[in-house]
Amino acid sequence: MIEFFINNAWAQGASQEGGSGSFLLMMVGFFAIFYFLLIRPQTKQAKEHKQLIASLSKGDEVVTTGGMLGRVNKVGDSFILLEISKELEVKIQKSAVSIVMPKGTIKTL
């Protein structure tokens, strides 16, 4: 009696048309987008920062990641001595340098 009101649901065979090929193509596309939008710019920026740190020399005017502006007085292996005002020097890690400013920036401020 129940079969009269409810139709039977018969399973259909699963379609195998391009299932794994389109999935693989989609995954490759996602990886390419992920690489060009996230990985590549980040590695490029890290490489530029590494070159910036390697090129530091005495007399450069720099800004640290904390926003401190000063002149480099001494460059060591992993630390630099930064003069932030007359007779006031601080020792910071090289990796804390974010920007090398043009010469004369401190005098204009």
What would you say about this model in short?
The chain is α+β, with helices and mostly antiparallel strands and 109 residues long. It is built from 3 helices and 5 strands; from the N terminus they run ααβββββα. The chain has 2 domains: 19-55; 57-109, SH3 type barrels (Roll), CATH 2.30.30.
Textual characterization of the structure:
This protein has 109 residues and is of the alpha+beta class. It folds into two domains: 37 residues; 53 residues, Roll (SH3 type barrels). Helices cover 40% and strands 27% of the residues. The protein has a five-stranded antiparallel sheet with strand order 4-3-2-1-5. β3 and β4 form a beta hairpin.
Per-chain topology:
Blueprint: H1 2-5, H2 19-54, E1 61-64, E2 69-75, E3 79-85, E4 88-93, E5 97-101, H3 105-108
Antiparallel strand pairs: 1-2, 1-5, 2-3, 3-4
Number of alpha- plus pi-helical segments:
3
Largest sheet: 5 strands, antiparallel
Share of residues in strands: 25-35%
What fold name goes in the CATH topology slot of the largest domain? SH3 type barrels
Uncertain residue segments: none
CATH-level-2 architecture of the largest domain: Roll
Order of helices and strands: HHEEEEEH
Number of strands: 5
Overall spatial form: rod-shaped
Strand order of the largest sheet: 4-3-2-1-5
What is the C-level CATH assignment of the largest domain?
Mainly Beta
